[in-house]
Design brief:
The complex is a heterodimer of chains A (258) and B (405). Chain A is of the alpha/beta class. Chain A has one domain: 3-Layer(aba) Sandwich (Rossmann fold), CATH 3.40.50. Chain A is 36% helix and 26% strand. In chain A, helix 3 packs across helix 4, helix 3 packs parallel to helix 5 and helix 5 runs parallel beside helix 6. A six-stranded mixed beta sheet of chain A has the order 6-7-8-3-9-10, sandwiched between helices. Chain A has a four-stranded antiparallel beta sheet with strand order 2-1-4-5, covered by helices on one side. With 405 residues, chain B is α+β, with helices and mostly antiparallel strands. In chain B, the strands form three sheets. A six-stranded mixed beta barrel of chain B has the order 5-6-11-8-10-9. In chain B, strands 2-3 form a two-stranded antiparallel sheet. A two-stranded antiparallel sheet of chain B has the order 4-12. The chains are: A alpha/beta (258), B alpha+beta (405). At the A-B interface, helix 2 and helix 3 of A face helix 1, helix 10, helix 11 and helix 13 of B.
Chain lengths: 258, 405
């Protein structure tokens, strides 16, 4: 597939993607003929009840799982047919993951947590380059002052910000977030959304799975899944700006104090 | 991914849990330490036995006349009369492959110098005695063949006798009295120290065998003749020649037993060192079991660690680790544990060997071979016992692993 200046390459292009799990005699059709295109710079929220196939779709897009049928181009490259070790490099170079449970290494400083993807990169970086790049990533999420602290000394929101910095450190084409606010209180959730919106404004493509409609309203495009199919795909109306919402929260807190 | 990154990843993982890392290593440390120390004790004992036997004389063959029997009655160990002066001359002249021979006429007597006197053992010997019995001289020299032929009243004193009689003074040229007869001291032997049974080997006086027979015992036969073979290889041949010669000279019939016993140092050396060798193997094997247990400890901890770190493994895979990277990480962790444990264990084993040497006075020997073997073995243990857990980790499915609670 060729790129032209007029028509930029989509980051994700799915063509009737299928995923069937064989559990004993029963076949579970988790994802059915999903076709989807996400252009660079989009901020997409995938919604749906549990069992709708949104997590499976996320795993397929994240190259953690292979489709049973259909085609998947990531940043112009067909990845459905790649070997497991080539997929590892794709995950390392093109994708950044943010999880509900943060998944940070315990007893390891924020900085070293952020370095982790660099260690698995095929290029190999010098120690100083590792340090420089992970410090830059921590700066993007506003956590430079906590770089030396292990996760146990960080709040939930700070831990998720470290995880976001880790996802950003290899300059991926796509940021994948699986229920990024699932373990956080409302206020911290909005803080995380503020970071996502800031990154998105600077051009980062983000795909986020969530089951909270309030969180989806911070994205620009909302995809609803049910029974493995995409049932609706539309721009977000009444979009929320996280920075403004945070301002309102501050106001509420002040009223309560008064 | 670069190999150095694998090292960094594995070392960081070990550093995250210092307590567990230390305890896991402890198994290997104790195992390797025990092997090194036990083998050192065994090897040391072997070397000491060998050295003390060498001290009695190299390639030495002792011919001892059997105690005389009268019917079934044992006449006592001094009653042997088999070896005569003619036998001695015949041995010197007719046996090939000898470099020296000496009779040993032994008698306990009092030796006096001035107002000092000591009870010691007098040996009547030939001019070859120092060579055959591996003695060296601290002062003076041995008496000559001429002095032996003339039954001269000359003596060589052992270090203990020299110290007891003369204090710090030079005994050479002084006159001592042995059973009232004056002897001129011509030499002092260099000290050998105590032997393994604790007997003081330096408590002796040498005189010409002729003088001993004439002046001290009054006998004309020998109980012991010692000879020195040219080399260890010649010993069996020399023994055979001596036995044949003596049977012929003593008119022993075909169906009769030899009237002498032959001890040869080579056999004694082999017997003693093979005993020590068996002990070394036994000690090493027992210690080896503890090393094996240490290895199983590593596998156990690594297996627990893989289960406990399932989510971590899933995360590593999600951020780009290949199955091979995970395998290598866990393998390197296991090898680092076992090799570090091995190195510390070698140090510990060396220390234990030193303590045993100093506290119990046993001689120990930490050989380079055992150190290299222990090091290699601990690395192999790491790979062997680390592989299964590492493979288990590498085979995890990243999606399942990330979801693991």
């Amino acid at each position: 597939m060729k790129t032209t200046a007029a028509e930029p390459q989509p980051v994700i292009r799915l063509e009737s993607l299928d995923k069937i799990y064989q559990t004993g005699a029963v076949a579970i059709h988790a994802v059915r003929e999903v076709s989807l295109t996400v252009a660079a710079g989009e901020f997409v929220a995938v919604m749906g009840p549990s069992g709708s196939g949104k997590s499976t779709l996320m795993n397929l897009i994240g190259c953690l799982d292979r489709p049973s049928g259909g085609h998947y181009w990531l940043d112009g490259e067909e990845v459905g047919a790649l070997s497991p070790s080539a997929l590892s490099q794709v995950r390392n170079q093109q994708l950044g993951f943010v999880f509900q449970g943060f998944n940070l290494l315990s007893r390891t400083s924020a900085l070293e947590n952020v370095e982790l993807p660099l260690l698995y990169s095929a290029h190999g970086h010098g120690r100083r380059e590792l340090r420089r790049r992970s410090q830059a990533a921590l700066e993007r999420v506003g956590l430079t002052d906590r770089a030396a602290h292990p996760p146990s000394q960080l709040s939930g929101g700070q831990q998720q910000r470290v995880a976001i910095a880790r996802a950003l450190v290899n300059e991926p084409a796509l940021l994948l977030a699986d229920e990024p606010t699932g373990n956080l209180d409302t206020r911290t959730s909005i803080e995380i959304m503020a970071i996502f919106q800031k990154l998105n404004r600077k051009g980062m493509t983000i795909l986020m799975v969530t089951h909270e409609p309030g969180i989806a309203r911070y994205s620009r495009r909302e995809i609803l899944m049910r029974d493995g199919r995409v049932v609706s795909d539309q721009p977000v109306r009444e979009r929320l700006e996280a920075v403004q919402e945070l301002g309102r929260w501050q106001g509420v807190a002040m009223e309560e104090q008064a | 991914m670069k190999f150095s990154a694998t090292w960094m990843i594995a070392l960081r993982a070990l550093r995250r849990n210092p307590m567990r890392t230390g305890l896991t290593m402890l198994g290997i440390i104790i195992g390797v330490g025990a092997v090194i120390a036990m083998v050192a004790i065994g090897t040391g004992a072997k070397a000491e036995v060998a050295a003390s036997i060498e001290q009695m004389g190299q390639n030495m063959v002792m011919i001892i006349s059997r105690a005389a029997r009268s019917g079934r009655v044992h006449m006592g160990s001094d009653s042997g009369v088999a070896l005569t002066r003619q036998d001695y001359d015949a041995i010197r002249q007719e046996i090939s492959g000898l470099v020296g021979a000496t009779p040993e006429v032994r008698v306990n007597a009092q030796v006096a110098y001035g107002n000092q006197n000591v009870n010691t053992t007098i040996y009547g010997v030939s001019e070859d005695y120092p060579a055959v019995r591996a003695w060296q001289f601290a002062q003076g020299e041995h008496f000559t063949q001429m002095e032996i032929r003339g039954a001269a009243k000359v003596a060589v004193v052992g270090q203990s006798v020299a110290t007891n009689l003369f204090g710090g003074g030079n005994p050479v040229g002084q006159v001592v009295r042995i059973q009232s007869a004056p002897y001129v001291v011509v030499g002092v032997l260099r000290a050998k120290g105590g032997n393994r049974m604790g007997r003081d080997q330096d408590d002796l006086v040498l005189v010409p065998w002729t003088s001993a027979q004439v002046r001290l015992t009054g006998r004309t036969t020998f109980r012991v003749i010692s000879v020195q073979a040219e080399s260890a290889e010649r010993i069996p041949d020399v023994v055979e020649q001596i036995l044949a010669l003596l049977r012929q000279r003593h008119n022993i019939r075909e169906d009769q037993e030899d009237d002498v016993k032959i001890f040869n140092m080579q056999d004694m050396l082999e017997m003693a060192t093979s005993t020590a060798q068996t002990m070394t193997i036994l000690l090493g094997a027992i210690a080896g079991v503890s090393l094996l247990v240490g290895g199983i400890g590593i596998m156990n901890i690594m297996l627990v660690s893989v289960t406990e770190r399932t989510r971590e493994i899933g995360l590593r895979m999600a951020v780009g680790a290949r199955a091979a990277d995970i395998l290598l990480q866990f393998l390197v962790e296991a090898v680092v544990l076992s090799v570090c444990g091995g190195v510390i264990g070698i140090g510990l084993g060396y220390g234990m060997a030193r303590v045993v040497s100093e506290k119990f006075g046993w001689s120990t020997l930490v050989s380079l071979d055992s150190v290299l073997a222990a090091f290699l073995f601990s690395a192999i243990i790491g790979i062997f016992f680390g592989f299964y857990p590492a493979r288990k980790a590498a085979r995890l499915d990243p999606i399942e692993a990330l979801r693991y609670e």
